[in-house]
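[Automated response] Your request has been received and processed.

Submitted sequence:
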Amino acid sequence: MKKFFLLFCTFIPLVASHEMGALLFHGNCVTCHYELESKSAPAIIEVRQRYKDAFPIKKDFVKYLSEWVHSPSAEKSIMQDAIAKYELMPQLAYEKDVLEEIAAYIYDTDFTQTHSYHKTK
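Generated structure:
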């Protein structure tokens, strides 16, 4: 029983963290970044793929993406073509830890499959 309780206590924060990332992403980012379509900004599926190609290790992906969104810079962008097409992303007033939650969610989520946000709708 004690092992089950410890496992349960370890697992719950992981689920809550993923759900928080989903909530933050779908409450903020989808205003411009649709999951599968590029309209006013690149689709998040494209952003995810480009960043995963450049930063295959999750901690590096999360660090670079969250830092870039915190302070967008054309010089540091790995998506120059997106800047040319949509212009540079505006600087947003999000806290760094919020951006890290969102970046981790993006890294972990296969947007071509049903994922947590869609399951709860």
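Summary generated for your ticket: Residues 47 and 91 are 17 Å apart (CA to CA). The first helix runs from residue 2 to 28.
If you did not submit this request, please reply to this message.
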